[in-house]
Amino acid sequence: MSTESTKPAAKGMQSLQGAVERIILYSRFILVIFYIGLAVALAGFAVNFVIKLAEVLPATPTMDETGILMAMLVLIDKALVASLIVMVMLSSYENFVGRFDDGIRDDSPTWLGRLDPGSLKIKVAATIIAISSINLLQSFLTAPQQSDRDLMWKAVIHGVFLVSALCLAMLDRITNQKSKGFSA
Description:
Elements: H1 3-26, H2 31-59, H3 65-96, H4 102-105, H5 117-141, H6 148-183
Helix pairs in contact: 2-3, 3-5, 5-6
């Protein structure tokens, strides 16, 4: 076989490989559907927050301190979830789809562009722990209304979230140390 006859085959393979690479690369834009869906969910969640706030405000004069605290914890919980959604949408878009334009970037949060997927996982885990802590506190505040078994399981699940977050943080730290060692 001559090298002349293998050149068209090699060119054809390179074209096919280039097409496959472009398909794989541009498939990341499918993620935009998920981020738009999260934005829609965030809007729905905001409506739910306003409804809950409208229920709580008129009732506060007649509520005891524990009742007010419980209501505020629910609102804080919702705010944490909403913040988590925004953090995931923005940083995931920038990490996996594309950079925001400079005009948009001027109006963006200061952390945008600094959250890599590993850091985002740790932030998500920390937010989950905060949400779990609030739910656990709510459970303890209403302890007489709950069984000891329920309280125990809620505490165990919170502990599992804590251990998981610590493991993620340790893995991220180890990974960052190794990558710094390789670049030096």
